[in-house]
Design goal:
single chain, 377 residues, alpha+beta, 11 helices, binds arginine
């Protein structure tokens, strides 16, 4: 088990930072109240303002995120009051409406109840991303949809879900309360904005009937603020073009479309000089960029994101906060060396508050004492 400083110390470090950064008065009273609450209950309760600022700090400290320039603009919805899986489903439908805004995407986080001192988990969302497309295995060994969702799709299927069998069936939401078995909810189609993919010069691309969803929303990371862990704190930003064009549609272990595009483009895949993967990848990214623009859905590209990250670094240095980052994640998967971030060195230290990975909700921890929320940012 990883050893953490006592909760008291973690609370103190967070509250000191929170009061210093926000310029609020009253730190010593708050510290005394939190000490007393921890002594009496083995935990403490953040104020709404503390959760809001803490969540923004967690984004600011997310070593793998290139989009952190906008950390202060994160909208935080406090839903620590929910008590049923229906409440969580409704809260996520509300989250989608508030975050999507018809395409004017707003970075938003909804926070559900904290982990209890006895380790029990009040709310857990089983989906890794709120919006994802199912994978349907076909008898001939091939499949339709997003291969990365194969395991999760099988769980949904065992619970009676079927989907339509298209390459883009939106998976349902799975929510468990208090360690009970999960419940399954459909996300209303009208809550999920999607973008049909077309290309300004290649009409055949639209005929492939590709699409992707507008809002990237991570739903299985643990938000940690001042030693308090929130196992359900789903959050979203807007997309960077390469996430969809290079990775989701291009990766061999996802939609694996590079060979298909190369074929349509008439590229010779046996001629090493053709660089067919590179050319297909550029066309896919052009298509994604063009399509999101045409649909009025906010999306950044890797060039803009790289410059914004450099601005974030300058801002943070000016505020006296050292920036931590994970190079392999910050550097985008296309045209890397043409981007300023490629030429930087980063310190990958993990700073609190932050977001952490949890084990998949459907996997039991190997031993009872193992912390399911490992601290690898
Ligand atoms: N890459 C993930 C996806 O394709 C989303 C990760 C977060 N990305 C973001 N732009 N906030 O859905």
């Amino acid at each position: 088990m990883t050893s953490h400083p006592p909760l008291r110390k973690q609370a103190q470090a967070f509250l000191e930072a929170y009061y210093a950064e926000t310029g609020r008065p009253g730190l010593s009273d708050r510290l005394a109240a939190v000490e007393a609450e921890i002594a009496a209950t083995a935990t403490y309760t953040h104020s709404c303002e503390e959760v809001e600022h803490g969540a923004r700090m967690a984004w600011r400290n997310s070593n793998r995120c290139i989009g952190r320039l906008f950390w202060k603009s994160l909208a935080v919805v406090d839903r620590r009051d929910v008590s049923t899986a229906e409440d969580v489903h409704r809260a996520m439908v509300d989250h989608l409406a508030m975050a999507t805004q018809g395409g004017r995407i707003r970075p938003t986080l909804t926070v559900f109840p904290a982990l209890r001192p006895d380790g029990s988990v009040p709310v857990r969302i089983w989906n890794k991303h709120l919006i994802r497309y199912a994978f349907h295995q076909l008898p001939d060994g091939k499949g339709i949809g997003d291969l990365a969702q194969s395991e999760f799709t099988n769980i949904c299927r065992r619970m009676g879900w079927q989907g339509e069998g298209t390459p883009f069936d939106i998976l349902p939401l799975l929510v468990s309360m208090e360690g009970a078995p999960p419940r399954l909810f459909e996300l209303p189609q009208e809550s999920v904005l999607e973008v049909p993919i077309s290309h300004p010069e290649y009409p055949w691309l639209a005929e492939m009937r590709l699409k992707w969803h507008a809002v990237p929303l991570i739903s299985d990371m643990v938000l940690e603020i001042g030693g308090i862990r929130y196992p359900a704190a789903p959050f979203n930003g807007w997309y960077m073009v390469t996430e969809v064009g290079s990775r989701n549609l291009g990766d061999e272990s996802r939609y694996n479309l590079l060979p298909v595009l190369a074929e349509r483009m008439g590229l010779d895949r046996d001629a090493p000089s053709v660089l067919w993967k590179d050319r297909a990848m550029v066309v896919l990214n052009e298509a994604v960029r063009h399509s999101y623009d045409k649909a009025g859905v906010m999306l950044t590209d890797h060039h803009e994101a790289s410059e914004q990250f450099m601005r974030f670094m300058r801002n943070e240095e000016a505020a006296g906060r050292p920036v931590t980052a994970d190079w392999a994640w910050i550097v985008p998967p296309m045209s890397a060396s043409a981007l300023t971030v490629f030429h930087q060195k980063f310190d990958d230290a993990v700073v609190s508050p932050n977001f952490f990975y949890a084990d998949d909700a459907w996997r039991k921890p190997a031993t009872a004492s193992r912390c399911p929320f490992h601290q690898t940012a």
